[in-house]
Amino acid sequence: MSVPRMTRRRFLRRAALPTIAASLGLGEPRLSAAAAAVASITVLPAQGPGAIPVALTVNGRVYELRIEPRVTLLDTLRERLALTGTKKGCDQGTCGACTVLVDGRRTNACLTLAVMVQGKAVTTIEGLADGNRLHPMQAAFIEHDGFQCGYCTPGQILSAVALLSEKRPTDEASVREWMSGNICRCGAYPNIVAAVRSVAGQNA
Amino acid sequence: MSGLVGAPIDRVDGRLKVTGAATYSAEVQVPGLVYGVMVLSTVASGSVARVDADAARKAPGVIEVMTSANAPRVDTKGTGGGDRTLMALQDDTVRYDRQPVAVVVADTFERAVDAASLVRVRYVRAPAATSFEREPDYQPQSALGADRHKGDAQAALAQAAVKIDQTYVVPAEHHNPMEPHATVAHWEGDRLTVYDATQGIMQARRKLAAAFGVPETNVRVISKFIGGGFGGKGSLWPHAVLAAMAAKLVDRPVKIVLSRPQMFGSVGFRPHTMQRVALGAARDGRLTSIIHQSSAQTSVFDEFIAGTGMLSTVLYGTPNLLVTHRLRKLNAATPTFMRAPGEACGSFALESAMDELAYATGIDPVQLRLINDTNTDAEGRPFSSRSLRECLRVAAERFGWSRRDPRPASMRDGRLLVGLGMAAATYPTHRSAAAALVQVRADGSVVVRSSGVDIGTGAYTVFTQVAAEQLGLPVERVTMELGDSTYPNAPNAGGSQLTASAGSAIKLAALDARAKLLALAGGNAALLRGGPEAIAALVQRAGVAAVEGTSDAKPGEEQKTFAQHAFGAQFVEVRVDADLGTVRVVRFVNAFACGRILNEKTAKSQYLGGAVWGIGMALLEHTRFDERSGRIMNANLAEYLVPVNADVPAVESIIVPEDDPHVNELGVKGIGEIGIVGAAAAVANAVYHATGKRVRDLPITPEKLLA
User: Fold this and answer.
1) Which of B223, B454, B645 is the mutation pick for testing A, counting most A CBs within 10 A?
2) N or C: which end of chain B has fewer CB within 10 A?
3) Residue B600 annotated among the catalytic residues of the structure
4) Do B550 and B611 sit in the same domain of this protein?
């Protein structure tokens, strides 16, 4: 298969072709049965370099690996480093399940390429406890039952840890607002707020 | 835990979940694993004319592209209930938007996603049934499809002094558990191991064995942790079969994880449901007639029916009743169970109508429900226990219902309108056959096994408590093992039945083990009260590795003798901005009587979750189908809205103690679903109280209040 090299201009020119507009249903909303129209999506092959060396510092440990530049931090953690505590909920930056700390700042690992965090310190849920001693936020989530299925929990906890280091106000309404980037479908929200505020109280 | 409300101990799996050590299906480490990515149809009806996979096959890292041309043959015809007919590349017909049409298998996830985007599919479109309004009703042949009659509901309605006759609509909604459906499938010869995000290990095993024509014992299904199910993971879906097919085709373990947009594909949803509820009453508020007729969507190739009107046979007494269920076939995926299927929708209609009746009669909504309380269901069976009155009383008092001025739009908080609304709730107590194994080991530790799944409800925790209580041991001594089809049989974690079923089996197995220990102790019960060391000594003296208790627990005659249901009450306060049409729930108080509660903490979390789901159902959730194409337009969490933290106020849940000696060995009624029942109606009723606007089609979005 010969693949034409794709430039931005060339992509835009081809994207403007009417066949694509029609295939996306933009021009012809309802096709009659008689027309029995053949619809197709024209997809252009992606291009990119192969694997490159990448060095990551995760939970204080340095990992050296070869990955394609398009690999997200999330998939690097989960699929290459077996650090599966960081969860994939949407892969679109809408749910917060993949929240990790990058140099202490909460970050959606699904919207971050691994190559972007070289030279920075990544903290995942696996790096939060001090050996067997849970981080106070982890302990508070257990005590206040701040989760049910547990899938959003690592992201919630890291978001909560960052929230406190951001020196946000910790009244109920503020915590709700600043924790709203992390969806919990089980609906543990009030318990999450209670957990966060209990740790904030300890720190005060 | 000897009382009616069990100790609020922390979740025994809490530490695993807060440290990231709990392993979900997509996270198992299997050597040689490769990645499958599905290509889904972009039309709702028609056929696949051609799949051009040449470019994909030549893309780096691609191992195989599976289409109908090279897919292994499987039998995926459903047998009813939760066993669904699945579209798994066995023909070229397209029956719904996002139906799988190919699976790309590659050595990395990125390469599989990339190659999947290179697959070109040509379709021949056919006319699609995409409009619920235009499709005709049909009467399903299943048990729920049968009409329920009592007296003459139509005549009684015609003669009633006060009448309400309205239509209520609940749109399609998707479960959207945080963990996407995921399957890792691995063949060793003709033996298949599947790690699947499922609520039903044994059902998944049956389905996979039937699909591939192998004995059930050749299939092992494992699901140690699942990231939320809510009914969506209560059936085995196409991706799981496709993963096993692909694994066979490439002769390597294959993992398929659904993307969030794919979560709006083949994995079920709450069907669009239209309901007519007509109430006839005397001037004193006593009901003389209830008519509850629902129509819901199903697919063109399979049938799902929820008992939408069934709560109308239970919640209130009436001499005349008519309940019917009809379906309409659409070119959409097959709907499925979603948290309180039936009751969640049905209660929105019935409890909205009851609020309308309260206004029509001038009777307080709580009082109206008390007036119509009943001691029997529509078939005349007595309830095994029924604490609706008590739930209404304690929740109303805690909520401060007496401060409510019933006149619509009469209460204000600054420029915001204040609304107070309420609704009643009920959910049936289900139970299925289950077995369990309790091993008391020579070191005084206990291992308990059941193939049930903890979907976040707290099964690991409450089952640990049950076994520890029966054996008189501290919970720390008990290890609960769930989620493996090699463990004793348990039903789906669905229908709020797992604790009633597997929990009862665990109690009986623990009692069996205790009886064997007692025999070893020569009948000296005092020896069993000596703690782990004394029990360990008994096992050691017997010279066995473990004393094993087993059980085979099943429902009995009590299922026919009694109507078995949990009851509850929901109270909601809202603030409505009349200029913007925005609604905020600011307070939520609910009370439930669900038999014995095994763990106060995890139980309240179930009620809380139900309230949050009710808020979502009332104000946010709506899967939007484009009627022109049959395609879903908001297949992501940016456009399909679920409640976030800022949407949820403090929720206060009251446990009403209830002793039910009839339902099962544990006296539990199930708590996972009742929390959402009536919740959306309570919000809608509060919105009416705040604004005088009765919204009968969910969700209650600003444009409906501004209209």
Assistant:
1) B645
2) C
3) no
4) no
Contact B180 A89 (CB under 8 A): yes
Considering chain B, what is the average pLDDT of its residues?
A: 97
Interface test with B, best of A185, A191, A199 (most B CBs within 10 A): A185
CATH of the domain at B114: 3.30.365.10
- How far apart, in whole angstroms, are the C-alpha atoms of residue B556 and residue B576? 50
Same structural domain, B581 and B630: yes
Distance CA A57, CA A64 (A): 9
Q: Which whole number is the average pLDDT over B635-648?
A: 98
pLDDT of residue A202: 78
CATH code assigned at A189: 1.10.150.120
| B545–chain A Cβ distance below 8 A for any pair | no
What residues 156-185 of chain B have any CB closer than 8 A to a CB of chain A? Answer: 175-180
Angle, helix B343-361 to helix B600-619, in steps of 10 degrees:
70
**Residue B622 placed within a domain:** yes
Q: Which residues of B touch A33 (CB under 8 A)?
A: 125-127
Residues of A within 8 A of B175 (CB-CB) are: 185
B442 and B516 belong to one structural domain = yes
* Whether A149 and B177 lie within 8 Å, measured CB to CB: yes
- Closest Cα in chain A, distance from residue B531 (Å): 27
Write the burial class of residue A8 (CB in 10 Å: 0-12 exposed, 13-18 middle, 19+ buried).
exposed
Domains in chain A: how many in total? 3
Nearest residue in chain A measured CA to CA from B40: A41
Q: Which residues contact A110 (CB under 8 A, 6 or more apart)?
A: A72, A73, A74, A88, A90, A91, A92, A93, A98
Q: Are residues A5 and A62 in the same domain?
A: no
Nearest to A154 among B20, B114, B125 (CB): B20
DSSP B477: G
User: Is the same domain home to B304 and B361?
Assistant: yes
Judgement on whether residues A64 and A115 belong to the same structural domain of the protein: yes
Q: Which chain B residues are closer than 8 Å to A151 by Cβ? A: 24, 177-179, 227-228
Q: Give the range of the structural domain holding residue B587, as residue numbers without chain letter.
A: 273-430+560-706
The count of C-alpha atoms lying within 13 angstroms of the C-alpha of B132, restricted to the half-sphere facing its C-beta, is 20
Q: Is B663 found in the same domain as B580? A: yes
B153 domain-assigned: no
Please say which residue of A65, A93, A127 terminates a domain: A127
Residue A47's pLDDT is 56
Residue of A nearest to B230 (CA): A186
* Beta strand pairing call for A52-58 and A121-123: parallel
Contacts A–B by Cβ distance under 8 A:
224
Reading chain A (204 residues) residue by residue, the pLDDT tens digits are 334 444 444 443 433 333 333 333 333 333 333 333 344 444 445 556 789 999 999 999 999 999 999 999 999 999 999 999 999 999 999 999 999 999 999 999 999 999 999 999 999 999 999 999 999 999 999 999 999 999 999 999 999 999 999 999 999 999 999 999 999 999 999 999 999 999 998 765
Q: Phi and psi at residue A161, in whole multiples of 5°? A: -60, -45
Chain B CB contacts of A129 under 8 Å are 19
Helix (H, G, I), strand (E, B) or coil at B400: coil
Indicate whether A60 and A107 sit together in one domain.
Answer: yes
Q: Is residue B85 part of a domain?
A: yes
Same-domain pairing of A172 and A186 = yes
Question: Would residue B140 count as lying in a domain?
Answer: no
B129: which chain A residues are within 8 Å (Cβ-Cβ)? none
Strands (E), B482-634: 546-553, 565-577, 582-593, 625-626, 631-632
Among partner residues A25, A141, A176, which is closest to B645 by beta-carbon distance?
A176
Q: B425-465 pLDDT, tens per residue? A: 999 999 999 999 999 999 999 999 999 999 999 999 999 99
Which of B242, B264, B286 is where one domain is finished?
B264
Q: Do A143 and B109 touch (CB under 8 A)?
A: no
Chain B residues with CB under 8 Å of A82 CB are: 29
CA distances B201 to B129, B342, B543, Å, are 34, 24, 34
pTM for the structure as a whole: 0.94
Q: How many domains does chain B have?
A: 3
Catalytic residue among B64, B351, B469, B673: B673
Please tell me the predicted confidence (pLDDT) of residue B4. 80
Which range of residues forms the domain containing residue A64?
A: 52-127
Q: Report pLDDT digits (tens) over B25-49.
A: 999 999 999 999 999 999 999 999 9
